TrEMBL record:
GO terms for molecular function: acyltransferase activity, transferring groups other than amino-acyl groups. Gene3D superfamilies: 3.40.630.30. It comes from Eubacterium callanderi. Residues 13-165 form the N-acetyltransferase domain. This is Acetyltransferase. PANTHER family: L-AMINO ACID N-ACETYLTRANSFERASE (PTHR43617), UPF0039 PROTEIN SLL0451 (PTHR43617:SF2). Pfam families: Acetyltransf_7. InterPro entries: Acyl_CoA_acyltransferase, GNAT_dom, MshD_Acetyltransferase.
Length: 225
């Protein structure tokens, strides 16, 4: 069913923690949201599937957006670290995937999921969220380039896709180093392809505008000084 909700209905969207019974539906929503977006097909629904088995996974920060009994969006988080240049290790969060069904995108649902995540993570005592994503979107959601804090990729590069969001004032002040996300993000493409066979067939397309933009963003890296 294609929902076209108005402002009042938008306010009725329920945000709640994902439950075991939601797993398949959440994976399907993620697949629909990412299919052919960054690359032909997608692997994000497989990532969602395996994240839940990682010790770094935080079920308290796995939220779904529900409207009229159907999941239309979701977001998940993992614990990650910054290996500080001072030799210390700082615990932070990695956010993603975050997904909204294509027919409900650009309606503020992603923002609503992000705000819920940030508020809950702050209450849990986390200092910041880092992620790899489209800066055109995330800078509108309170994120800034991680380079602002001299935070680099694990291979010591500045990347425009690496975005950071402090969860309280000066949370990252004096912290600089390399962002190290959980190993679960390094997925096996072969295993992801096998997992996708359990879903209904969808045609893969290449050369889309979003894929071209993704390739451009990924290449926007430079060595740290």
């Amino acid at each position: 069913m294609n929902y076209n909700f108005n402002r009042e209905q938008f306010m009725e969207i329920e945000l709640r923690c994902e439950q075991t019974k939601d797993y398949r539906e959440t994976e399907t929503v993620t697949r629909e949201a990412f299919w052919n977006h960054d690359a032909p097909g997608c692997f994000e629904h497989y990532l969602v599937h395996i994240m839940r088995n990682s010790p770094a996974f935080l079920p308290e920060l796995s939220f779904v957006a529900v409207f009229d009994g159907k999941i239309i969006g979701n977001v998940m988080c993992m614990e990650s670290i910054i290996e500080g240049d001072d030799g210390k290790v700082y615990k932070i969060l990695t956010l993603g995937p975050i997904s909204v069904l294509p027919e409900h995108q650009q309606k503020g649902i992603g923002r609503k999921l992000l705000e819920k995540t940030k508020a809950t993570a702050h209450k849990m005592g986390y200092r910041a969220i880092l992620l790899y994503g489209d800066p055109d979107y995330y800078t509108k959601q309170g994120f800034v380039p991680a380079e602002k804090y001299n935070i680099r990729t694990v291979d010591n590069m500045y990347a425009i896709a690496l975005q950071a969001c402090e969860l309280y004032a000066d949370a990252l002040k004096g912290i600089q180093g390399r962002f190290v996300e959980d190993a679960v993000y390094a997925i096996s493409e072969a295993e992801a392809e096998e997992f996708d066979r359990h879903f209904s067939f969808k045609e893969k397309c290449s050369g889309t505008p979003s894929q071209q933009k993704f390739k451009k963003i990924v290449k926007m890296r430079r060595k740290a000084d």
